Amino acid sequence: GARGGPAGTGMGLPEAIRDRVAAVHRGSALPERLRLYDGWAARYEQDVAALEYRAPHLAAASLSFAFPAPRAEARLLDVACGTGLVARELHRRGFRCLHGVDGSAGMLEQARSTGLYQDLRLCVLGTEPLPAPAEHYDAVTVVGALSEGQVPSTVLPELLRVTKPGGFLCLTTRSNPSNLRYKVELEASLGQLERSGAWQKLLAQEVEYWERATTEEESTQGTGYISGVVYIYQKCPVPHLEEG
After folding, report:
1. Where is the Methyltransferase type domain (predicted)?
2. Domain with 58 in it: what CATH number?
3. How many domains does the chain divide into?
């Protein structure tokens, strides 16, 4: 039930949902966190609906906007795909060739049941390389997983590796207080890769109502929501050497 705080805040969320969200964001070690995701998988979509989690929709809309047609043939990798929320949004927008990876077998099982993916693999990001050859994908998405204690920002070069030159990367992160240190690190890495000529930034869209806050402390100025960002990058094409 709601304990303390105005009814309009995330405190109105069922306590069980708050506890499940808190558990996966708590600073537990990765194997433990993946186990929690396995256990959460069956209820995950109901919970994020209650949280009014808008990232999959916002990310897919942003990528579609940047992506040149046609889409049906384009090969996309959905990293940390979870139960397939992003795939559903991409599919609605005409993307048909979707591959997914996630560190949780329970989540992959749910994703498999959607029938939206051509290929699904277990992969723990940050500790293992992506199960794909270099320059394989027209676009790579990482929606919701770039945050404290989940996917480290050190994976960016690995995401770039599997992206075709000229291909797109769609990334999201949260701007709530407990993720701010991570966000600063992430943006430093994003900027470094841009300065090195690896990719160019097409979009950094700050979104005020990203999802409902689960605690008073995380809520943006008492709105009861936390904010987030969608980034779109384009991998720089390989420069042609002058013939001569």
Report:
1. 77-170
2. 3.40.50.150
3. 1
* Mean pLDDT on 117-142: 96
Domain annotation covers residue 164: yes
**CA pair distance 244, 235, nearest whole angstrom:** 27
Q: Is the pLDDT of residue 223 over 50?
A: yes
Mean pLDDT of 51-63: 94
**Least confident segment among 8-17, 39-48, 180-189:** 8-17
Model pLDDT, residue 219: 87
In a domain, 76, yes or no: yes
* Higher-confidence position of 226 and 26: 226
Q: Please state, in angstroms and rounded to a whole number, the distance separating the CA atoms of residues 138 and 169.
A: 9
| pTM for this predicted structure | 0.89
Reported as half-sphere exposure (CB side, CA atoms, 13 A), residue 62 has a value of 29
Q: Which domain holds residue 154?
A: 15-235
Dist CA 139 CA 167 (whole Å): 5
Q: Backbone phi, then psi, for 149, in 5-degree steps?
A: 75, 5
What the block records as the tokens of 71 is: 């889409």
How many residues belong to the chain?
244
Q: How many beta carbons lie within 10 A of that of residue 28, not counting itself? A: 14
Other Cβ atoms closer than 10 A to 213 = 26
Give CA–CA dist 52/85, Å, rounded. Answer: 13
Q: Is residue 240 part of a domain?
A: no
Cα-based torsion angle of the residue sequence 71, 187, 177, 49 in order, rounded to the nearest 10 degrees: 10
